[in-house]
């Protein structure tokens, strides 16, 4: 693809929380996606070379962007927006090719002598007009009846197509979309991305019995104040919150009156509670781009024996 739709407002809303470097790198990743018309390389080291992410800062930014905006599948890193635009582009190409073939076939048929009508003195084609329908009181002609019949048939076909449009079954994806929409309402606006993927993941989690819809919404409601802290700077995207089972953090927050739980290392909120106890404060994305970096600092301090872990 030589070009693709770029809605400035949508892109700004999606990348409001990114740094200048992250935003520029995200554009670079999308350009590569559309240029190759396929998912990004699964090998992050090779992908980093393709987008010139040669410094530690750019590699860290690349890891964060892949985690937030892309999904790793068998054939590489997928982005739902890019996949949809590429599919629409290919469909349009196929329609144009089909239209071109139909037009060529029509021109070829028009040149066939057998299809030409009788010629008058000037060599032109004789056009026979239908007779007037003299029996009609309004004096309308026979030309109008086929036109009206054709429009009526078209309307009937359109109404039939609309009636036969399949609707999402009760308890299916429709419910997942409703739950996902309510779930996202507890997150800062700039983290409410990829609603369709969130709906699919919610549907899968509930269907598998991993977590109920009620528990998901209750956990998000309980964490809403923390998620929106400092304008949601350290808040994950909803899809990431689900992947990392962050709804369990709400349960950990109740242990020991909100202090450091005995199983603190098993949840993110527990790690943050220990980090606060060690004087590191909560995870700050500007200081530790990835939560794993923050967690490593907590473990390093505990390994030095500066503060007891229990």
Please summarize what this structure is:
The protein is mainly alpha-helical and 310 residues long. The protein has 13 helices and two strands; from the N terminus they run ααααββααααααααα. α2 packs across α4.
Radius of gyration: 31 Å
Question: Could you state the oligomeric state of the chains shown?
Answer: single chain
Our measurement of the CA-to-CA distance between the termini, rounded to an integer number of angstroms, reads 57 Å
Coarse shape: elongated
Strand order within the widest sheet? 1-2
The helix/strand class is mainly alpha
The ordered H/E elements are HHHHEEHHHHHHHHH
Helix content: 40-55%
> Spans of 5+ residues with little confidence (pLDDT < 50)?
118-123, 160-174, 252-258
Number of H- or I-type helical stretches: 13
Share of β-strand residues: under 5%
Q: Characterize the main sheet.
A: 2 strands, antiparallel
Number of strands: 2
Mean pLDDT: 75
């Amino acid at each position: 693809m030589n070009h693709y739709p770029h809605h400035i407002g949508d892109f700004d809303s999606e990348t409001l929380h990114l740094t200048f470097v992250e935003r520029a790198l995200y554009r670079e990743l999308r350009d590569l996606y559309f240029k190759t018309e396929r998912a990004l390389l699964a090998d992050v080291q090779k992908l980093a070379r393709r987008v010139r992410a040669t410094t530690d800062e750019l590699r860290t930014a690349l890891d964060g962007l892949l985690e937030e905006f892309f999904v790793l599948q068998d054939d590489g890193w997928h982005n739902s927006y890019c996949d949809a635009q590429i599919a629409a582009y290919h469909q349009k190409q196929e329609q144009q090719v089909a239209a071109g073939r139909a037009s060529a076939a029509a021109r070829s048929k028009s040149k066939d002598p057998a299809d030409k009508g009788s010629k008058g003195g000037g060599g032109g084609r004789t056009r026979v007009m239908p007779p007037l329908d003299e029996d009609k009181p309004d004096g309308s002609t026979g030309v109008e009846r086929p036109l009206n019949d054709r429009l009526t048939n078209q309307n009937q076909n359109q109404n039939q197509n609309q009636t036969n449009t399949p609707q999402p079954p009760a308890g299916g994806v429709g419910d997942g979309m409703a739950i996902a929409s309510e779930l996202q309402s507890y997150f800062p606006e700039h983290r409410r991305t990829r609603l369709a993927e969130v709906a699919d993941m919610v549907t899968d989690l509930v269907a598998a019995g991993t977590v109920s819809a009620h528990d998901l919404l209750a956990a998000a409601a309980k964490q809403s104040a923390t998620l929106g802290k400092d304008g949601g700077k350290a808040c994950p995207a909803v899809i990431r919150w689900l992947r990392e089972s962050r709804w369990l953090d709400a349960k950990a927050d109740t242990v020991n009156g909100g202090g450091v739980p005995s199983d603190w290392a098993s949840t993110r909120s527990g790690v943050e509670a220990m980090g606060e106890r060690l004087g590191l404060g909560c995870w700050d994305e500007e200081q530790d781009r990835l939560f794993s970096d923050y967690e490593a600092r907590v473990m390093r301090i505990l390994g030095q024996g500066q503060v007891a872990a229990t």
